[in-house]
Design brief:
With 301 residues, the chain is an alpha/beta fold. It is built from 11 helices and 12 strands. The strands form 3 sheets. A 6-stranded mixed sheet has the order 4-5-8-9-11-10, covered by helices on one side. A 4-stranded mixed sheet has the order 3-2-1-12. Strands 6-7 form a two-stranded antiparallel sheet. α3 packs across α11, α4 packs parallel to α5 and α8 packs parallel to α10. The protein is globular, with a radius of gyration of 19 Å. It starts with a helix and ends in an 8-residue tail after the last strand. The relative contact order is 0.17. The protein binds fe (ii) ion (2 copies). One fe (ii) ion (FE2) binds next to loops.
C-alpha cells in the first residue's frame, strides 16, 4: 500500500517533499537505426517512468540518416514519453540522400517541425531551468595532430579513412562557417535564457569540451576523426554562461564528468554492433542517463 501511494504522487512533488529541488532529466543520444525498433521506444519510456524523469533530452543522431527518418523516430519517442521529448539535430539527421536535390539546410529546417526541437527556441523546464540547444558542427578545434594535412581534414578523407559527412552532409559552406553559425545561434539562445532569468541546460550534438574527447594515440583512424568531434567555442560559451549542465552526444562513448566548472553528460545508445547487451531494452536502460539538475547550484545527481 505504501508503494502504491508513493507511486501515485507526481515525481516533481515527491522530490520537493523529499527536499530535492531539482528537475529530473532522462538523457539519451545516438539511437541511430535502433530508434526504429518498437522495443527500443518502449524501453526508453519504461526507463523514464521508472526514474520519474520529466523530460527526455535526445541529443541527436536519432534515425538511420536524414530528416524524414529522424522525424519518424522522434514522433514515436515523443508519443511514448507524453510529449516530453526535446531534440537537437545530429550530423546523421541532416544527411542528404545521395543524388537527390536539396542540401543539409533543407534537412535541418524540416527537423524544426518537431515540436520538441530546441533549435526552434528555448524550452522552459520548470524549476528556474531552461533547455537551450543547437546540434552544432565541428571546426577541428578538438582534433589531434597526425600525419595528415589540413587539406585531408577539410576533405574529411585521409588515405582509406573517410568521414561520411564528406559525402552526405551538404551545407554549401566550410565546416568552420557552419560551426560558427551554430555558435552564434547558441550564444543568442543562451542570452535569451539569461534575460528570462533562467539557468540553462545546454544541449548540443557535437562535443563542446576537449576533456570529453576520447583520445586513442595508438589508433590513427580514430585520431584523424577527432577533428570532427565538435568545437571548443561551444564549451567556452556554455562555461561563460554558467550553465547548470551540458548534454551532448556524437561520440559513442558514454561519459559523465565536469569541464570548465560545468557538469556534463553524454549518453549514447550507439550502433547495435557495439552494444554490451544482446537485449535492446537492457541496453537502453544501461545507456540512458538520469540527471537531477537544480537552477540554484547546478547540483547534479
Ligand atoms: Fe552517432
Ligand atoms: Fe553524430
Amino acid at each position: 500500500v505504501a508503494r502504491a501511494s508513493r507511486a501515485s504522487v507526481p515525481a516533481p512533488l515527491r522530490r520537493a517533499a523529499e527536499g530535492v529541488p531539482a528537475v529530473r532529466l532522462a538523457v539519451l543520444s545516438d539511437l541511430h537505426a535502433a530508434a526504429r525498433r518498437p522495443e527500443v521506444i518502449r524501453a526508453v519510456a519504461a526507463s523514464m517512468e521508472a526514474a520519474g524523469a520529466e523530460w527526455l533530452v535526445c541529443a541527436g543522431d536519432v534515425g538511420a540518416g536524414g530528416a524524414d527518418d529522424a522525424l519518424r523516430c522522434l514522433r514515436a519517442l515523443d508519443r511514448a514519453c507524453a510529449g516530453r521529448a526535446l531534440f537537437v539535430a545530429g550530423n546523421h539527421d541532416i544527411w542528404c540522400p545521395p543524388g537527390e536535390p536539396g542540401d543539409s539546410w533543407d534537412q535541418w529546417r524540416r527537423l524544426l517541425t518537431f515540436p520538441g526541437s530546441l533549435e526552434r527556441g528555448n524550452r522552459d523546464l520548470g524549476g528556474g531551468l531552461c533547455a537551450v540547444g543547437v546540434g552544432g558542427w565541428y571546426d577541428y578545434s578538438l582534433g589531434d595532430d597526425g600525419p595528415w594535412t589540413r587539406d585531408d581534414v577539410e576533405r574529411k578523407q585521409w588515405g582509406n579513412v573517410l568521414w561520411r559527412d564528406a559525402a552526405l552532409a551538404r551545407w554549401g559552406a566550410t565546416d568552420a562557417e557552419v560551426c560558427a553559425g551554430f555558435g552564434q545561434l547558441l550564444q543568442q539562445r543562451l542570452d535569451e535564457a539569461a534575460a528570462a532569468g533562467l539557468r540553462a541546460v545546454a544541449v548540443t550534438h557535437v562535443l563542446p569540451f576537449a576533456q570529453a574527447v576520447q583520445r586513442r594515440p595508438d589508433d590513427p583512424t580514430w585520431t584523424f576523426c577527432n577533428a570532427f568531434m565538435g568545437s571548443s567555442a561551444y564549451g567556452e560559451a556554455i562555461a561563460a554562461r554558467g550553465c547548470a549542465l551540458a548534454v551532448f552526444g556524437h561520440t559513442h562513448t558514454r561519459k559523465r564528468g565536469m569541464a570548465a566548472g560545468v557538469p556534463y553528460v553524454c549518453a549514447p545508445l550507439g550502433y547495435e554492433q557495439d552494444w554490451q547487451d544482446a537485449d535492446a531494452a537492457a541496453e537502453v536502460a544501461r545507456a540512458l542517463a538520469v540527471v537531477d539538475v537544480s537552477a540554484a547550484h547546478g547540483r547534479v545527481g
